[in-house]
Design goal:
The chain is an alpha+beta fold and 153 residues long. It folds into two domains: 61 residues, SH3 type barrels (Roll); 56 residues, no CATH class. Helix content is 45%, strand content 25%. Strands 4-3-2-1-5-6 form a six-stranded antiparallel sheet. Helix 3 runs antiparallel to helix 4. The two termini are 43 Å apart.
């Protein structure tokens, strides 16, 4: 019985949250995109075109690609997406931390039978440096920045 009451309270609250979502079919959301923002426009049956937003009017959208500007009539546009800010630096820092930790652990395990004064420390340092390099490369290669759709009629 208690779960039924909880559900009756949550359903109206969740519907309020759902109505606060911005619909992607609103052209006004496209008009609020700042010029110079990287956008992807899908129009007609062709592949999406990526470029920097130049202007948006009530009837068309213009993006700059390479040295030419491409104009798209609003009626032909299937979707407009904007590129969100990437997190490449965060990915590199996480990769560095994980790589160093893994490298130090592997280096310590590799040098545990060493009997010299500095040979155990040598394995740990080398393992940490190799892990650091691997973590940086992995952080750079991890995908950064995604596309968010702002308009689809």
């Amino acid at each position: 019985m208690f779960n039924v009451h909880r559900a009756l309270v949550l359903i109206p609250l969740l519907s309020l949250v759902a109505t606060a979502q911005v619909p992607t079919s609103n052209w006004d959301s496209v008009k609020t995109i700042a010029p110079g923002t990287e956008v992807s426009v899908a129009a007609g049956n062709s592949k999406p075109v990526r470029g920097k937003l130049e202007t948006v009017t009530e009837t068309n959208l213009v993006i700059g690609k390479s040295s030419a500007a491409h104009s798209f009539p609003r009626a032909d546009i299937r979707s407009v997406s904007v590129k969100e800010k990437g997190h490449r630096m965060r990915n590199v820092l996480v990769g560095m931390g994980v790589g160093v930790a893994a490298g130090l652990g592997i280096g310590a395990a590799a040098g545990h039978n060493c009997t010299g004064i500095a040979c155990g420390g040598f394995h740990v340092v080398v393992g940490g440096l190799i892990g650091l390099g691997g973590g940086i490369v992995a952080g750079l290669e991890f995908p950064s920045g995604k596309w968010r759709q702002v308009y689809a009629p």
